[in-house]
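Researcher: I need the complex structure. Ligand is aspartic acid. Inputs:
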Amino acid sequence: MRILIIFVSLMLIYSCQSNSGNNNIAIVIHGGAGTILKENMTPELESAYLEKLEEAISTGYQILQEGGSSQLAVEETIKIMENSPLFNAGVGAVLTNDETVSLDASFMEGANLNAGAIAGSKYIKNPISAAISVMNDSPHVLLSSKGADEFAIKIGLDTMPNSYFITERRLNSVRRAKENDKLTYVDPFINDYKYGTVGCVAIDKNGNISSGTSTGGTTNKKWGRIGDAPIIGAGTYANNDCCGISATGWGEHFIRNVVAYDIAAQIMYDDKSITEASKKSLEKVMKTGGDGGVIGLDKNGNVSMEFNTAGMYRAFIGNDGELTVKIYSN
Ligand code: ASP
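Model: Output:
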């Protein structure tokens, strides 16, 4: 009897400890916003997206549940999406005008405002890991093109030939865009065209917020075009005092409106909720003629997943451990 009482007491203490440690963890992801309409989806493709989003977010959430850092949760979650041809990041990214893949990514840590990013990489298998390494292993914030690839090789990150990233679907898209001489951010020739960047924001048991974003940019991009995804403050921002943000959409407009930081500033200086602030920043994006979406978590783990396109691949697990996965608007 005594042994049983001791055992039950120990179990109670253990469960109280693990619950109190996990109270504030939360994670939110996007897999790109755009013209994503149910009528253009096959049931198979829809299930493939839902399953991959669930796999990615569950991986990150498990890391947080086990007491891991938000940095690790964001990295591992984004790697799953980069390794899937469904999204415009890593393998399956959109193609440039010269029919190569050129990858951008960024990462920011809310505890100390550390950040790292790469742009225009042709070979880095997981750009999000390279962005984190720029933050941790270099004195810089943003490395580009050949230099980014050289850095990744030097520190031993996995690289792949550019052909590894290229899928037939994206090759067809860029060829059709080129035939029509369209220098465009959307591909008008595929029904489910969308932006497809991936992003993740997480808050760990210590209240540390991390944000990351990874993309191939826009179809048929030329002249070394770089979008918002690797720009800290535009596509990605994190600050433990307010929130973490990751964006997707027409990058030029997200840069011009400094969207990720604009949301943070409204929360810090104007006391707005993360949803109000996200809506307001997206209104500004629309005013300059752009569109897209943002995901974010505030310091209390409140989530926002706002967009002004037809859909946005997205998922969220909050303080209560409930999973939400969505594609279309509501
Ligand atoms: N924002 C990205 C860019 O402009 C595109 C995307 O969200 O898919 O490069």
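Model: Summary of the prediction. Residues 32, 88, 195-197, 215, 217-218, 227-229, 248-249, 251 surround aspartic acid (CB under 6 Å).
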